[in-house]
Structures are given as C-alpha cells and as structure tokens.
Amino acid sequence: MTAQPVIRGQGPGVVTRFAPSPTGRLHLGHAFSAIRAHDWARGRGGSFLLRIEDIDGTRSRREHVEAILADLAWLGLSWDSEVVFQSARLDRYAAALDQLKAMGLVYPCFCTRADIAAASLTAPHGAEAVYPGTCRGIDTTGRIHEPHCWRLDAGAAAAVAGPLNWWDETAGTVAADAASHGDVVLARKDAPASYHLAVTVDDAAQGVSDVIRGVDLFAATHVHRLLQALLGLPTPRYRHHPLLTGADGERLAKRHGAPTLAAMRLAGEDGRALADALRQGRLPTGFMASAH
Ligand code: GLU
C-alpha cells in the first residue's frame, strides 16, 4: 500500500476535525460537535478537516459515508483538503504498532472476542472496563498464528513515558493517567488498528491543533496522550464539549429512534437554520446539553 502524504490544514495554526464513524446515520449530537469544530477553525482563519473513521470494516457502510457528506453540506459546513478515510491508512497504523513492538510495550492477547466484548474495550465511547492483563507476560511460543489482538502494556508504557499532562478547555491542565485505563487494545484481531491508535496517528498526521469532540471521549484522551509521547507525536489542545441528550438525560447515540440528520434533511427541513439554532444554544424541544 502506498503511504499517503501528510495532510496539513491550510490556515495559520488552527486545524480542527470532525471524525465520524460511518456505522450509522448522524444525529443531532454529531451536528452539534461538527459545528463547533467547524466554527472554531473558520473563526480563526484555520482549517476544518473531515476524517471518516472506518477501520471497522464489518460495521462501516459506504451509504453512511454518503449520508455524512450530504448531512454536513445540508448544515452549511464545508471542509478543507480531501476527506481522509482511515481504511486507506492501515499501513500507517501498522507502522506505529511496529514502533511500539520494537519498544517492547505491546503484547499479543488471545482472549476471546466474547471476553473483549464483555469488557467493551474497543469502543471509543462509554465507560471502559479495565482488561485484567490476562495475556501480559504469557509464553506465546507457537501461538502467534492464533487469532490475537495487540494490547498496550500500559504500566510499562507509562513508566517509560514518565509524567505527562494535557490541556482541556474546561478541565485545564490534566495529569495523564493512562495506566488506570488498563492495557487497551491497539490493534484488533480483524484490523491492524484500534480507535485509540488510529486517532492518535491521524490527529498528528493531519496537523490537528484542537481536538473538539464530546466529553464522552475525555477519558480516552489519557490513552491518546500516552501514545503521543511513546510515538514522538505532538499533543493537540482538547476541547471536550457537553453531549446532547434526550429530555430523560440519555445520550442520543444510545437512544432508539433519535431523529437522524438524514431524516430531517429528506423531510425538507432547513439544515442551515438548524445549525444556527444549535450555534445559539437553541436546542429542539426534547433535547438538552449535558456535561457528563
Ligand atoms: N470516530 C469517533 C466517533 O464517531 C470520534 C473520534 C474522535 O473524535 O476522537 O465517535
């Protein structure tokens, strides 16, 4: 596979991105996030980039990608540079994993899919169960051809990296605490990358200066900060924002029947008017912004 060139924003310094996974239709919460990232860059003469996080080949769909592009245009958002697809950058993630292998900071894990699913360790969102380290230090002789993922030896990695900080708009300077997240998956059984590895490599490759995303990914930033240090990558500023929820406080991503942007678009609603309402904090009836 040919390596893609480094893609940097055109503006003087500020580069933001919207990085949806094309595993479903976008909802109002995605619009809220994309508008914030877009406006932060546009208001500062910077660049707004679009990255499609489609490493999960089994759940990603081309039709969702098409809907995402149409939804963003409907909201009146434009992006700079070509759209980046993570599925075209697997060689980059494999190279980063090799770097960590050479440092002795990752190990193969043979735990079953059911174990991993139970611990929900590959999902970017939500409370992550901590992997108990079952496969850390086991003898893998003769087993390496069995299906396995690769995990970060977080304790060893944190010791190598030493104390680390990152900055968040709301929380201020945060001491990175990646070890408490346990040995996260960096390469899956079915893909040479996990969310954590791909997002870290790509934010650096795209020159992202300000990561603007939901507060549900705040905890993941501890892991990303550690990976940045290990891989010698720069650390962006982080601006984690509140999530939109239904009136019952439940996150839109978890709700059944939350209206999708595509449905509103196809029903003839005015996307630019919706975007302006969201900018002004006027949420449609039945929605709230929650800081948790
Ligand atoms: N792809 C992730 C998602 O759709 C977002 C990743 C990020 O913004 O860091 O939730």
UniProtKB/TrEMBL annotation:
<dbReference type="GO" id="GO:0005829">
    <property type="term" value="C:cytosol"/>
</dbReference>
<keyword id="KW-0547">Nucleotide-binding</keyword>
<dbReference type="GO" id="GO:0005524">
    <property type="term" value="F:ATP binding"/>
</dbReference>
<keyword id="KW-0648">Protein biosynthesis</keyword>
<dbReference type="InterPro" id="IPR049940">
    <property type="entry name" value="GluQ/Sye"/>
</dbReference>
<protein>
    <submittedName>
        <fullName>Glutamyl-Q tRNA(Asp) synthetase</fullName>
        <ecNumber>6.1.1.-</ecNumber>
    </submittedName>
</protein>
<keyword id="KW-0479">Metal-binding</keyword>
<keyword id="KW-0862">Zinc</keyword>
<feature type="domain" description="Glutamyl/glutaminyl-tRNA synthetase class Ib catalytic">
    <location>
        <begin position="14"/>
        <end position="270"/>
    </location>
</feature>
<dbReference type="InterPro" id="IPR020058">
    <property type="entry name" value="Glu/Gln-tRNA-synth_Ib_cat-dom"/>
</dbReference>
<dbReference type="InterPro" id="IPR000924">
    <property type="entry name" value="Glu/Gln-tRNA-synth"/>
</dbReference>
<dbReference type="InterPro" id="IPR001412">
    <property type="entry name" value="aa-tRNA-synth_I_CS"/>
</dbReference>
<dbReference type="Pfam" id="PF00749">
    <property type="entry name" value="tRNA-synt_1c"/>
</dbReference>
<dbReference type="GO" id="GO:0006424">
    <property type="term" value="P:glutamyl-tRNA aminoacylation"/>
</dbReference>
<comment type="similarity">
    <text>Belongs to the class-I aminoacyl-tRNA synthetase family.</text>
</comment>
<dbReference type="InterPro" id="IPR014729">
    <property type="entry name" value="Rossmann-like_a/b/a_fold"/>
</dbReference>
<keyword id="KW-0030">Aminoacyl-tRNA synthetase</keyword>
<keyword id="KW-0436">Ligase</keyword>
<keyword id="KW-0067">ATP-binding</keyword>
<dbReference type="GO" id="GO:0004818">
    <property type="term" value="F:glutamate-tRNA ligase activity"/>
</dbReference>
